[in-house]
Amino acid sequence: MPAAPDDAADPADLPAAPHPEPPGVSVFLTVRNEERDLAEAMGRILDQDYPGPFEVVLAVGPSRDNTAEIAEKLAAEEPRLKVVDNPAGWTPAGLNAAIRGARHDYLVRVDGHSHIAADYVSRVVGVLRSTGAANVGGIMVPEGRTAFEQAVATAMSSPLGIGSAPFHTGGEAGPAASVYLGAFRRDALEAVGLYDETFLRAQDWELNYRLRQAGHTVWFDPSLRVGYRPRGSWKQLATQFFRSGRWRNHVMRQYPDTASVRYLAPPAAVCAIAAGLAAGIAGAVLAALGGAGAAAAPWLLAGLVVPGGYVLGVVVGSLREGRGLPARSRLLLPPVLATMHMSWGAGFLRGPEAR
What pTM, to 2 d.p., does this model score? Predict the structure, then answer.
């Protein structure tokens, strides 16, 4: 006979349902020529509080220093670290090699110079599982130490410096075009063919584009913050943005639908400023020589309004964006912004670089 309701077991007396085992996670990255910082970087990455199966897969490219030897020594001392070879040396090839060498189905990308909190992996996996997205990520947080780096960090976190991409400037959680670094579901990543190894730069953006085209969601969460140390010299900054501009040109050639004002503004500014300077110089020369050509001088001199207006705009914008910076960093901010704009625009006009 069925038990009466009064005889029903009290739910409080029943054994608790077991908590599902956290999924296995493979953190992956690629490095080369990282002798100075590799041990410290690995220490930060391995110092995670993730409660489930966890490994780090490190792809090492051909290096001019002892990076490979240090990596092998670290792996011999740390069973959670696996080293794989990246003979091509390129970033996307190394990332793919690390993914192929990974054991788990949740794949979290980091960088050799990333500064991540001890709960980063736990949190990013939680967002992956709760949203069902193919890739999730957050904000790249530039952390400058010198006055120059602080100015670069401010510029890279400002719409005035690098546009309004949420992973640079912040915003609401939700679907996004791209995110910084990223944490992936293996099935989605493999379905689109991993990273495109022909993209020596912009490979993150290109991968996220293919994920979205395949119907997957790329999810931005501003609470996921990853520290990043920006370039430390004028030459390094100019080279970084010049190469980024060249590769953006390559992206737009391959995917014309991605053209936007944000990407076309820097090359347009370079052309306008160059034309204005040329006209102004020609006008000054004609005015100095006199004669019949002097009548055109005022019109040509008016071309200087373009570079003059650009400089004024950068200075005024820097006053707003640089609030709170030390005095030397505030002084450096306008030329840092100009270097970023002009280098990126010149690189875009130069066109794709050969491998």
Answer: 0.82
Residue type (1 letter), 174: G
Cβ atoms of 210 and 154 within 8 Å: the answer is no
Token pair in block for residue 63: 């290096």
SS3 state at 333: helix
Residue pair 224/130 in contact by the 8 Å Cβ criterion: no
24 within 8 A of 93, measured Cβ to Cβ:
no
Give the tens place of pLDDT for each residue, 98-124: 999 999 999 999 988 788 899 999 999
Strands 135-142 and 218-228: parallel
Could you tell me the two tokens for 127? 């967002």
Digit-coded pLDDT (tens) for 206-238: 999 999 999 999 999 999 988 888 888 999 999
Dihedral sign computed on CA atoms, order 119, 37, 245, 340: positive
The contacts of residue 32 (CB under 8 Å, 6+ apart) are 60, 61, 62, 63, 67, 86, 89, 94
Residue 202 region by backbone torsions, left for phi larger than 0, else alpha for psi between -120 and 50, else beta: left
Return the residue matching tokens 């530039």.
Answer: 142
The helix/strand/coil state of 342 is helix
- For residue 154, the tally of other CB atoms under 10 A from its CB is 26
- Could you tell me whether strands 106-109 and 174-175 are parallel, antiparallel, or unpaired per DSSP bridges? unpaired
Do the strands 81-85 and 54-60 form a parallel or antiparallel pair, or are they unpaired?
A: parallel
Question: What stretches of 133-196 show up as alpha helix (H) in DSSP?
Answer: 147-156, 159-162, 166-169, 186-191
**123 closest CA partner among 108, 101, 144:** 108
- In order of 92, 143, 315, the CA distances from 230 in angstroms are 21, 7, 22
Phi, psi of 294 (to 5 degrees): -65, -25
**First-residue to last-residue Cα distance in the chain:** 80
Give how far the C-alpha of residue 149 lies from the chain's centroid of Cα atoms, to the nearest Å. 16
Strands 54-60 and 106-109: unpaired
- Average pLDDT of 294-306? 90
